[in-house]
Write a structure and sequence with these properties.
With about 160 residues, this protein is α/β, with parallel strands linked by helices. The protein has a single domain, classed as DNA polymerase III subunit chi (Rossmann fold). It has four helices and seven strands.
Length: about 160
Amino acid sequence: MTRVTFYLLDSNFGSNPENNGQNQQQFACRLIDKAWRGGLPMHIHTTDESSCKSMDQLLWSWREDSFLPHGIISQTQGCTPERVLLAKESPITLGFDHPVLESKRLLINLSPDVPPFFKDFARVCEIVVQNPDQKAVSRAKFRAYRQAGIEPEVHNM
């Protein structure tokens, strides 16, 4: 059964509370780095192509002393077979649609919705910056996981 963990971030995490999307992405990078160093293959699910490209850029520049090997994989963007193969071989993949991956151990969901394919993964991580807008979205996701028969874990960061 899929294990779901919600990471609750104080609205002051990172920098300016107005940059909640950035705060979520910064924490995601920390989580990605830790999981990658632990040998876990993972997929980062984003909202759309723009947010996927933004996360891609952040992974390239997140730390000067660290490289997080990753590739974008998308069914809807007409990726060439070569690019799909390269992305599939990366320990970290990014996308905004249903990923076609062989190893599905960890999903980091940066989308405001529960992905319909979440049960394909052994573990799902949800990152919540605690502000009124995010709380409503996160509560809806929490309920959706419960309705799917999963009792999510919650970690206050």
